[in-house]
């Protein structure tokens, strides 16, 4: 298992699960967890679900990816409550997460992953 894991957060549960499935095929040895939608199944984000995704991830160092602004804000709050090292990336959701997962799966080190994510940053 990779020393670095990935957490995904989307406003839509099916989108979070779909990206999770894509990444799991690409990076079976990377711990990937996700949260999608609100606690009652609507579109939005859930602090509890994101916190659970962080805590259930097997890695102590996590790269986190989100789809929209309030998922970012909720992720930021959840990160504050975690003892893990969690880094939040302002990159294209699918492309960023996929890039990180495939590089980690291929044995790339942290610095290489960060270098490859830089062109995907959304400003």
TrEMBL record:
Domain of life here?
Bacteria
Broad enzyme group: transferase
Q: Which reaction does it catalyse?
A: dihydroxyacetone + phosphoenolpyruvate = dihydroxyacetone phosphate + pyruvate
- Write down what this protein is called: phosphoenolpyruvate--glycerone phosphotransferase
Q: Which PANTHER family match?
A: PEP-DEPENDENT DIHYDROXYACETONE KINASE, PHOSPHORYL DONOR SUBUNIT DHAM
- MF annotations from Gene Ontology: phosphoenolpyruvate-glycerone phosphotransferase activity
Q: Which residues cross the membrane?
A: none
Q: PTS EIIA type-4 domain location, by residue?
A: 3-123
Q: Which organism is it from?
A: Pelagirhabdus alkalitolerans
Identify the PROSITE patterns for this entry.
Answer: PTS_EIIA_TYPE_4 (PS51096)
SUPFAM superfamilies, A to Z? PTS system fructose IIA component-like
Q: What is its EC number?
A: 2.7.1.121
According to its UniProt entry, the function of this protein is described as: Component of the dihydroxyacetone kinase complex, which is responsible for the phosphoenolpyruvate (PEP)-dependent phosphorylation of dihydroxyacetone. DhaM serves as the phosphoryl donor. Is phosphorylated by phosphoenolpyruvate in an EI- and HPr-dependent reaction, and a phosphorelay system on histidine residues finally leads to phosphoryl transfer to DhaL and dihydroxyacetone.
GO CC terms, sorted = membrane
